[in-house]
Prior knowledge:
The chain has 383 residues and is α+β, with helices and mostly antiparallel strands. It folds into two domains: 32-145, Rieske [2Fe-2S] iron-sulphur domain (Rieske Iron-sulfur Protein, 3-layer Sandwich), CATH 2.102.10.10; 155-379, Naphthalene 1,2-dioxygenase Alpha Subunit, Chain A, domain 1. 21% of the residues lie in helices and 26% in strands. The protein has eight helices and 21 strands. The strands form five sheets. The chain has a seven-stranded antiparallel sheet, with no helix packed on it. Strands 13, 14, 18, 19, 20 and 21 form a six-stranded antiparallel sheet that branches. β19 (262-267) and β20 (270-280) form a beta hairpin. FE2/S2 (inorganic) cluster binds next to loops. Residues 73, 75-76, 78, 93, 95-96, 98 line the site of FE2/S2 (inorganic) cluster.
Amino acid sequence: MSTMLHLLPTDAYTSQEWFDREMREIFSKTWIYAGFMEDVGEPGQYISVQAGLNNIFIVMGRDRRLRAFHNICRHRGTQLIRAVGKTQKALTCPYHDWTYDLEGNLISVPEEHEEFGKVDKSCHGLKRASVDIWKSMIFIHPDADADPITDWFAPAEDQIGPHVPEELVEYEELNTSYEIKANWKIVVENYIDVYHLSHLHSGTLAMYDHKSAKYGFVGDHYMFWEPPEASFAKYQDKKLIAPRVIPEDQNGAWVPMLWPGIGIGATEDGWNIFIVEPLGPALTRVTNRGRVANASNWEFAKQEMKSSNFWTKFGLSGKYEAHDAQSEDDPMAGGDFTAEDIYACERQQASLKSPYFETGPAAKGESPVIEHQKVVLRWLGEA
Ligand code: FES
Ligand SMILES: [Fe+2]
C-alpha cells in the first residue's frame, strides 16, 4: 500500500498501471482537444491525435466537412498517416498500399484479383470516430456515436467568460509546447490550486485579486474567476498589454480547467488554452495557444506603448530575488509564472517515491485539488 496524496495513493501519480487505467477509462472515453479550426482548413488536410488508447485522425473532405477516423488500416492495422499533412484525394497505407478516399471508403486493394480473388470493399472502410467544434477548437471522441460536444460543455458555458474566440485571431508567438516531468494530475492540480497563487506566483500574478476569487466544480469541470487587483483595475485600458477583447463591465481573469486537462486562461486582453496531455506516469506535455483581438499592428503597438509605463513601475519579478537565484536562468527568478509552475510540479513529483513522503492538511484554496481527485476516482469506477 502506498501513501496517499489526499484521496489518491501516490501510485496514482507514479505507476504505469494507474496510467494505463486512466488512458483506458478516462482519455479513451471523452472529448479530446485536437487543434483549432485553422489547422484543418482545406480539403485533404489532416491531423492526428492520441485519445487514450486510440490514435485518431481528422481529415477535411472535398465537401469541406470534417470527418474523424481511427488511424488503423483495415488490412493489418498499420497507422495510415503520421502527425499532420495534406493529401490530394486519397489516403494510402504505407504497408501494402490499400487506399481509402477522404470519406473513409476503401477504394483500392493492390493485386486484388491475384491475391484475394475478391475483397468486399464496402465492409472494410475506416472506422469512424466523432469530431466536433467548440469555441473554435476541434475535439474528437473515439466513439462514433458520442453525444454532441455542446452538451458536454453546456454546464460550464456561462461561467467561462464572455470571450468569443471565433472573433479573435491566433497570436503565434503565444504557441508553445513543452514537457513537464510530472504526472498529468500534478499539472492539473497545480493549475487549479488557488492557495499557491499568492505564494509561488507572489511576484508574477499580483495584478489579480486572488482573495476575491470565485471557484468550484460544475459537474466534472472546474470554474475559476478573479477580479483585477485595485491598482491594475484603475484606468485599466491604459495598462492592458494588448487591445481589449471583452466588455469593461466584465473585467477579470477566467481560468477554468475543463475535464480532462483542458485549461483555458482568459483575461481582458487575450484568450489562451492550456492543454494537458499525459505521455507517461511522470511525463506530461502541455500545449499553449492563444488568441488576441483582431486589430492592426499599429493598434497593438499603441497599446503596448501605453501600458509599458505601468508594467515598468508595477514590475514582474521572480519569487526569489537575484541573490537567492541559482543561476541566471533559474526558473524561480525569471518573472515567468509558467516556469514557476513547471518548477513546482517537477519538484513535487520528485518526492512522490520517497518512503518519507507524507501530505499535510489541505488548505481551503486547495479544495479544487481534492474535488479533482474525486472526479478521477469516479471515472475509474472507484467512487
Ligand atoms: S496493413 Fe495497411 S495495407 Fe496492409
Ligand atoms: Fe501556478
